[in-house]
Amino acid sequence: MSHSSILLVVLVLSFSAALSELCNPQDKQTLLQIKKELGNPSNLSSWIPHTDCCNNNWEGVTCGSETESYRVYELDFSDVYLPKPHPIPPSIGNLPYLKTLYINMMPNIVDTIPSTIAKLTNLRHLSIKYTSISGQIPLFLSQMKTLESINFSNNKLSGKLPAWLPSLPNIYSISLDSNRFSGAIPYSFGSFREGFALLSLSDNRLTGKIPATLGKLDLKLVDLSKNMLEGDASLLFGSAKHSDTIRLANNMFAFDLGKVGLSKNLMILDVSHNRLYGMLPKGLTSLKDLLSLDVSYNNLCGEIPQGGKMKGFYDSAYAHNKCLCGSPLPSCKPF
Fold it and tell me: What average pLDDT does the structure give for the chain?
């Protein structure tokens, strides 16, 4: 076969491969630009220009189905190693069909959240956690009405909690743990939509009393632990609610724990290191799914209710209270 024939065969094969490629050319160009903006990390070595980005071989890239024109709809950068600091690639905003964006476990991701993310008008799930991003939660996110979940845990974000977060019409989950947020929980946080289920604000620098409006929420999970909050948090409880996890540890809350109603779904209750008083609720014995309980370091008194799952907890769960007694602590003294 002559050289010209060989060249023709190569060109035909290349053209046929290009025609059979599912990846949208604009999406592919954007992905390769993102890779460049991240310094061409080794984790993305599978992003090769002459291959199809929708063939499930490009690390972290997921495309839609045939009916969705095979556009890139999920990008997962979890654990991508960057030897040097880089900001979040601004080119991410050029993936118009993106629904899910994960930038997790990347400590060398720095600077603020880029405004180009606001161009992702189909984005539903945004997770940027365990990075070194800083600054405030940007206002432009308030215009992203498709957002359903936000997870900005374990970063260096600061400032006040945005009062506009409940205005997101489809949001059901917000996690902002382990940052540097300060000030009070906004009054507006009681106006999250029906179906809002998860609010996690632990390990920040939040102060003051929690707004009474939070009592209107039926949260599956609420975590306000490791802050400097005070006052009455009993409004987070209720026998008609569907809470399975309540974490309020390491604050300055003060209320009568014995008077709270308990969700029948409760699995985890941690109110340790506060100023709670009263007796333990007798309803604890009827909780069939209770897996974890910690009421230590409070001002609780009276006999520990016996029965149900209560027999499975060690004395450390009740330690350092004013006058709790009964198994697994020493017996109560007769009057």
Answer: 93
